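Annex B. Sample input.
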Amino acid sequence: MKRFTLTLSFALLAATSASAQKVSLTFLHGFTGPDRPVMEGLVKKFNDTHPNIEVKAQAQPWGTTWQQLPALVASGRAPDVVVINEDQITGFVARGAVSPLTAAELKTAGIDKAKFFGPLFKTADYKGQSYGLPISSVAYAMFYNKDLMKKVGLDPNKPPRTRAEFLKVAQLCTVDKNGKNSTQAGFDAKNLDTWGVSLYNNWVGARAAYAAILQNGGSMVNSAQNASFNSPQAISAVQFMVDLVQKQKVARPNSTEEAELAAFSQGKVCMFPSGQWYLDRFETQKMNFGVTFMPRVGGTARDAAWGGSSHLTLPKQPASYNAAKRKAALDFMAWMALPEQNLAWTATGSLPTQAAVAKNPKFASAAISGIFDRLGSVYATSGFPWVGQVMGPFDAAWEAAYLGKKTVTQALNDGVAESNKQIEQARKNFN
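Annex B, continued. Sample output.
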């Protein structure tokens, strides 16, 4: 009896020791700039509050991770947790480099996808399965000059939401050196003092056209994941954008992002659609500006704007991988995605990933909160493995149409043909 009691005691002691054994996780991310200290602070906080889990974080350039990850997975040496961006994640999933997050695992870890902005969470979904948890988000927004709006008799606290409202602001704010706007007789489009809206020819400029297509019910790819940005809905939406330059004369032709950025900073452009990352610049310049969600310039099907994001993922591991590590990794992911941590991460310039954070009093008087009412309508270029093979030709098509080198229909048709040619080659590299 005594021997049995001792044996049982040793067994319980061994079991307790095993359960209390510290699990060590490797965490790879690409936050190497001013956001790095914030991430390091969050990791330290997690380690301090989770004595049985130690997260060892490593920061390196995103491009390095994209190059190394497939080989690391193939050799069984992948990190336990990796941050992957929206334009890369579906490609890694299709290559079999990322492990799916099952509904049971999400539930056990306390991760409720319904608490996140829907399209943001679905950015890391592929063929009905979830592969990532969003922790960082950026979006295309529209900055506008309140002084210029007020000068032409518009309410600076009521930015445009519809195509008609947007066009009205653009027309009234496009004023020549004689003080006439684009709706008045005698208006001189070749001698302007201020412009209504900024459009330009790089990939960021093309994201305004991307939003317009989605707003009109179009899409970048069809159900077969072939390029489809030459649908009637897409052509109509992009035509409106091009007409702002070529017919309405409310946007400067043949301009660059740098030139339009300077013009907006100097009070020469009323509306400047671009990435939210310019917020700090305009605040530093002490401009009297507002921020609003991208108006429905493309159509009335839905609100939509382009967005970018970063997701916590679990790379595929060998069959011998320790189940305790996967559980610990899910616990880390769940903790990182909690509202408290997401609120801390917004200090880097990221947007909230969930409504609970967007409603925090911290943002009550923040200019960026002007887009918070529609954060659930931010759509990343994701869901298909060949993002580059779609968006590269699309950006080229936008530039050709914007510059008047091709008609909108010809530019989009040529872009789709080139995109599908590239997709045909890319399919060979994906499962």
